Amino acid sequence: MPPIYQLQHAQKAYDGRVVLDIDALAIGRGEVLALVGPSGSGKSTLLRLLNFLEPPTAGALTFDGRAVGDDLPLSERRRVTAVFQRPALLRRSVAANIGYGLGLRGEKLPPEELAAWLERLGLTHLARQSALRLSAGEAQRVAMARALVVRPDVLLLDEPTANLDPYNVGLIERLVAEEQRALGMTVVWVTHDIFQARRVADRVAFLLAGRLVEVADAETFFTAPATAQAAAFARGELVY
Amino acid sequence: METLLDALREALRLLIDLDPALVEIIGMTLRVTGSALLLAVLLGLPIGAALGLRERIPAAGCLMPIIYTGMALPPVVAGLFVYLILSNQGPLGGLDWLFTARAMVVSQTIIALPLVIGLTLTALRGLDPGIKLQVRSLGATRLQLATALLLEARLGVLAAIIAAFGGIVSEVGAVMLVGGNIEGQTRVLTTAIVLETRRGNFALALALGIILLLLAFLTNWLFHKLSDG
Ligand SMILES: Nc1ncnc2c1ncn2[C@@H]1O[C@H](COP(=O)(O)OP(=O)(O)OP(=O)(O)O)[C@@H](O)[C@H]1O
Ligand SMILES: [Mg+2]
Fold first, then answer.
1. How many C-beta neighbours within 10 Å does residue B11 have?
2. B193 vs B18: CA distance, rounded Å
3. pLDDT exceeds 70 at position A238
4. Is the Cα torsion angle A146, A148, A153, A156 positive or negative in sign?
5. Contact A53 B133 (CB under 8 A)
6. Pairing between β-strand A211-217 and β-strand A203-208 as defined by DSSP bridges
7. φ and ψ at A115, to 5 degrees?
8. CA-CA-CA-CA torsion for A227, A233, A239, A240, nearest 10 degrees?
9. Does the pLDDT at position A57 exceed 60?
């Protein structure tokens, strides 16, 4: 089977300034790819392309063999969900937030499944509460559940644990690992934390000033990187 | 002091007895203001949403000052426009609407419309941009996105409607100009207060004033109750 995503000479420019310029990148089905790089290197921009929120300004991006553009069918777009650094919950109850993505698809989360999710994330006592009154960790757990209940083929994560304490970080890493195994989903995980990248990723892609400097399996990236920049980054020496 | 207390006592009696003149005026006020509010919401909500949901407001440099001017438009000026348009020599003089309740509805709609548009737009613009991205990333269609954002902004939208109601129910100048303050036909709370005060009917004027105050209180109470839940 072909890779789930393929980028070829894909560029993204804002007002004529190219902020992302990827010669070639293939993201395999069911892999966990960590996307790392200094601030402003284009990680979130790449994720927005993979999320079909913005089209590339040049070059080709394919999803499951289809060219990504305005005519990408809704059913294809709906195979991908994302969680961002800020949970962006809706002004509704916790339960309504968790079921929201399914609601968009004309489905309803069965009560016993909702109960299972709440239980798993330690949110049972908060089900009926407004999602806007949650702590940061609780809110991000809700956002994770909301993205996962639709059983996506691809989960995009943009530093979802950047603001969280170790307990919540661990919980979310475990959750993603379990769901990834259960659904065989592809995960693209943007992280600032090289230790997290090492914990969660099969492969690491390292962006620098909008270009892919190195893509390697996690073990190689952290122990024997091919480029000096990647080596410096893996040692934590590259200034953000 | 004596007259004030007497007037207050008499006003309360009128309220308790549901004086027919009083009831008539309240009914007319609610019909006129209710119709105007409905029209303003039916027109203004889609316009405000269409503008507020866009990435960029078209011709914002020109359009926004127009909307803001409309929001701050002295009602009596709106009344003047409507008067000129509906008067015998005006383009719509043939309708024969001047000095009818319809003319009052038209002018109140014109006063309320920019408020509904402007405040709806502001409420949508004020939403966290992350919400829009997140809802789209969860697989929303354009219509689902618009619905979700309007629901997120519902308190602001409600505030827009309440502000519009408060603005037109307490307005005197425009309705006086185009309605003519005709007893039993175009008399609303505010114009009746003016008239009864001039006539020296302080009790009735005060009773009407109390109703107006209660309406203002009720709308604000409603707003706060809704914003808590
Ligand atoms: N909508 C936009 N308009 C203009 N420039 C943008 C836009 N989005 C991103 N950029 C620019 O693109 C570059 C890459 O930004 P991006 O957010 O992808 O970086 P990042 O790697 O995610 O950084 P961080 O680690 O700080 O989140 C930056 O220079 C940024 O200013
Ligand atoms: Mg980023």
1. 22
2. 17
3. no
4. positive
5. yes
6. antiparallel
7. -60, -40
8. 110
9. yes
A14 CA to centre of ligand 1 in angstroms = 9
Which of A19, A84, A194 gets mutated to test ligand 1 (max ligand atoms within 8 A of its CB)? A19
Instruction: Using the Cα atoms of residue A210, residue A212, residue A217 and residue A220 in order, give the sign of their dihedral.
Output: negative
Residue B71 CB coordination number (10 Å): 19
Q: A1-10 burial string, b = 16+ CB within 10 Å, else e?
A: eebbbbbeeb
Neighbour count for residue B27 (Cβ, 10 Å): 11
Domains of chain A: 5-87+154-234 (3.40.50.300)
Ligand 1 centroid, distance to A35 Cα (angstroms): 14
Number of H helices, E strands in chain B: 11, 0
Q: Are B191 and B93 in contact (CB under 8 A)?
A: no
> Across the interface, do A147 and B144 touch by the CB < 8 Å criterion?
no
**Which structural domains are found in chain B, ordered by start?**
2-228 (1.10.3720.10)
CB B169 within 8 A of CB B29: yes
Selected residue of B128, B133, B138, B150 to mutate for chain A interface (largest A Cβ count, 10 A): B138
Residues 6+ apart with CB under 8 A from A35: A43, A46, A47, A188, A189, A190, A191, A205, A207
Using the 8-state DSSP alphabet, how is residue A37 labeled? -
Nearest CA to ligand 1 atom 6: A14
Model confidence at A70, in pLDDT bands (50, 70, 90)?
confident
Is the CB of B138 less than 8 angstroms away from the CB of A80? no
Residue A88 and residue B139: Cβ atoms within 8 Å? no
ipTM of the modeled complex: 0.92
Residue B228: which of A94, A91, A123 has the closest Cα?
Answer: A91
**Alpha carbon nearest to ligand 1 atom 26, residue:** A39
Tokens of A100: 């929201």
Element spanning A221, H or E? helix A218-223
In the reported structure, the alpha carbon of residue A160 is separated from the centroid of ligand 2 by a whole-number distance in angstroms of 11
Q: If you ran DSSP here, which 8-state letter would residue A204 be given?
A: E
How far does the CA of residue A226 sit from the closest CA of chain B (Å)? 35
What confidence tens digit (pLDDT) does each residue in A74-94 have? 999 999 999 999 999 999 999
Q: Which helix (H) or strand (E) holds A25?
A: strand A17-27
